[in-house]
Amino acid sequence: MSLLSDLLNLDLSETTEKIIAEYVWVGGSGMDLRSKARTISGPVSDPSKLPKWNYDGSSTGQAPGEDSEVILYPQAIFRDPFRRGKNILVMCDTYTPAGEPIPTNKRHAAAKIFSHPDVAAEEPWYGIEQEYTLLQKNVKWPMGWPTGGYPGPQGPYYCGVGADKAFGRDIVDAHYKSCLYAGINISGINGEVMPGQWEFQVGPAVGISAGDELWMARYILERITEIAGVVLSFDPKPIQGDWNGAGAHTNYSTKSMRKEGGFEVIKKAIEKLGHRHKEHIAAYGEGNERRLTGRHETADINSFKWGVANRGASVRVGRDTEREGKGYFEDRRPASNMDPYIVTSMIAETTILGKH
């Protein structure tokens, strides 16, 4: 008699050419991920060869009930670590039946910025450090914390090892391997300063692919926590008080910054970011004012400052970049719940296209 796990692990290639494609999109809150699956006649590696699809936008907060159809446009394909074989995960964006991007489709505008000749010529690279918190399912309290109580103060948990310091490592490692399997350029993981909080890094990724890869990495993590019976939180300050918040530090460089003399280009770019500080903050995630207080390795939300190796700055330049006179910088302002399409394209728009 077959067990459920046996059936879940059936190898479809033994009996059919058909594959399963899981279409993934961002829902109406701008942070909720949705997905549904369909059968495709054979393996596909080019998203333009996949059919468009539709869904009921009135059930995701993206369309009215009397005109509820939203169309999914496949944009990026990843291998499916859950179904494996030749099955795929498909990152999609969302349009009206007339072909207009719906308001929550932030990818469309980002793709326009990245396809601008001046931006494309600079080959913007991104590395995004995604922090998140694992919560106990029934009490919505961080993993490893006593119910209704608090653990010992911060200090031993960052990159910590041991049953009293690291909570949820099996989820973290499952996610790491799943992202590598999927073809996401995940570059590392670590335990964070607050217990129950972790980080993964995606990049370097060029242009629009940074957003596609980060959203799909979030989707895979959400699916793994679903299996584990744990709640995933991207709240930028999940616990008030003397506990670190959660951010999505965004590392960035252009071709000019990576060349000899690039440090001067970096300084000019940072100056441009300072001129648009308010606009960037407004677009860098909800609830960020609870995180950017000037404490816990953050700069105050109302001020802009940069520095070398300064984790209390809005923008940090690494010692290596200063020493070599070229490289990259880190925008430390984005919150953990930021939209990577908005953040990556806005940095390019401000620093390359010089939008004021």
From TrEMBL:
Keyword field contains Glycosyltransferase: no
Q: Locate the GS beta-grasp domain: which residues? A: 19-99
Q: What Pfam families would the database entry show?
A: Gln-synt_C, Gln-synt_N
Task: Name a GO CC annotation attached to this entry.
Answer: cytoplasm
Q: What is its main location?
A: cytoplasm
Q: Where in the cell is it found?
A: Cytoplasm
| Protein name, as recorded | Glutamine synthetase
